[in-house]
Amino acid sequence: MPLTGIEIFKLLPKTNCSECGVPTCLAFAMSLAAGKAELAACPYVSEEAKVKLSEAAAPPILPVTIGVGERALKIGGETVMFRHEKRFENPPGIALLLTDSMDEKEIDEKLERLKSLKYERVGLTLQPELVAIKDSSGDGGKFEALVKKVVQSTDRGLILMSDSPDNLSVGLKVCADRKPLLYAATKENAERLITLAKENSCPLAVKAPGLEELSQLVTKLTEAGRKDLVLDSGARTVRQAFEDQVIIRSSALNKKFRPLGFPTIVFPAEMTSDPMKEALIASIFVAKYAGIIVLSDLRGESLFPLLVERMNIFTDPQRPLMTKQGIYDIGGPDENSPALITTNFSLTYFIVSGEIESSKVPSHLLVMDTEGLSVMTSWAAGKFVADAIAPFVKKSGIEDKIKHHKLIIPGYIAAEQGGLEEELPGWEILVGPREGAHIPAYLKTWQA
Q1: Which residue from 330, 331, 340, 335 is spatially nearest to 401, judged by alpha carbons?
Q2: What is the pLDDT of residue 218?
Q3: How far is CA 355 from CA 55, 337, 341, in A?
Q4: Are residues 149 and 36 in the same domain?
């Protein structure tokens, strides 16, 4: 059973140093017991206490990693039911389903869409992370051939799916170094899959017809030492799957019921044959509360909204969306093109870059890191002022891109014009419009 707040408090150093972010050790202990803090936040906890507190320190829903390297996908690790309580931690992985009964042309087309469908937004690359490879034929040779094809075609994370432990073993030999998710341990094959997962250090999916049987099976697996589990309640209707997701999340977070404290996998691909309905179902589980969502196909018109929904929901509400600092060349500018500067608040960036693009005047846009604050807010906070802007301009590399040494600043920080001319000798600082909508008209008057 998880430790209570008082039990945790007894093991803490009781310094009340506040370095963990809360004023007292008792408050920290209560947060830890509620799954709203991490033990690592306490800099003075002893090693002995760390061992004793390991269960309490673990998030109510344990994290699981699928894959290796840059393509590794971390799911789970959640601590709250609702995003506004704190934040959601790890976005659900989106997986493309391929089966060994599909013809080569269909497989090739789906893999090509997997490669091509990716989107840049707010400095992030949005794309599916996983390929679910299903043994639907029962033929180990065909399954192995499909796994080989996928491994050669993409470096995305893998889910190997088969009712046969023997076929899973055959497929795993091809890709064991990629640490795929093995799907799925059931009451009938649990012993063999525990061994297979342990020998290859792979995460393991667990499937049972209903939450009661699922809990019993998970208990058996955890007693055997498996902690990297992904749960499938077996539901294949929207209503039942939705109810199961909510119950699993609530049981883990509110009841501290460890057998359900793992991320989940859902299959909209098996709930409908209508592609748009499948996308709608998937959108439900992005919010409530899947760890992996398996789709039958990837289409831009349905995938992009899902990816944006996922990004929005799993963005920390306490932190603004930020664009990466740097120089953004818009419209193919040259050494005579205008250079503008703005902050890295994503909304500001998209408004300014959009207006520059609509002006049809090729331009260099310098985006400065102001910790995601808008122009006015960052200026008021002292983050977008002359003595901060000037060092950024000098180090940005813009002097290698232009020969005119003219910099256009937002009209809202016109007061910084004189300071910038002092900080940037040889530069002419131009005051641009206050509003983004006026940028196109302003740029049309540009002369190098």
Answers
A1: 335
A2: 97
A3: 52, 15, 13
A4: no
Neighbouring-strand partners of residue 161: 134, 183
Instruction: Write down the pLDDT at residue 151.
Output: 96
Predicted confidence (pLDDT) per residue in 159-191, tens digit:
999 999 999 999 999 999 999 999 999 999 999
Same domain, yes or no: 157 and 125 = yes
Q: In this model, does residue 115 exceed pLDDT 80? A: yes
Residues pairing with 65 in the sheet: 74
Tell me the per-residue pLDDT of 390-419, one tens digit each, with 9 for 90 and over.
999 999 999 999 999 999 999 999 999 999
Average pLDDT over residues 86-97: 94
Asked whether 362 and 331 are in contact (CB, 8 A), the reply is: yes
Residue where a domain stops, chosen among 313, 348, 366: 313
* Same structural domain, 29 and 170: no
pLDDT value at residue 35: 66
- The two tokens of residue 158 are 């893998």
Residue 228 and residue 360 in one domain: no
- Beta bridge partners, 327, equal 366
Q: Name 116's Cβ contacts closer than 8 Å, sequence gap at least 6.
A: none
- Contact 366/342 with Cβ under 8 angstroms? yes
Total domain count, the chain = 3
Alpha-carbon separation of residue 290 from 203, 267, 294, 384 (angstroms): 16, 10, 10, 40
Domain of residue 29 covers: 5-57
pLDDT of amino acid 31:
84
Across 68-72, average pLDDT:
91
Token pair of 432 as six digits: 């641009």
Q: Are 147 and 173 in contact (CB under 8 A)?
A: no
189, 296: one domain: yes
From the list 204, 199, 200, the residue with the least C-alpha distance to 228 is 204
Please list, in sequence order, all residues whose beta carbon lies within 8 angstroms of the beta carbon of residue 410, skipping any fewer than 6 positions away: 341, 342, 375, 432, 433, 434
> What confidence score (pLDDT) does residue 322 get?
82
364 and 267, same structural domain? no
Average confidence (pLDDT) over 270-277: 95
For residue 432, CA distances in Å to 340, 384, 406, 407 come to 8, 15, 12, 9
Co-location of 306 and 244 in the same domain:
yes
Please state, in angstroms and rounded to a whole number, the distance separating the CA atoms of residues 224 and 339: 62
Judgement on whether residues 114 and 241 belong to the same structural domain of the protein: yes
Q: What is the C-alpha to C-alpha distance for residues 211 and 188, in angstroms, rounded to an integer? A: 17
448 within a domain of the structure (yes/no): no
Contact 277, 93 (CB under 8 A): no
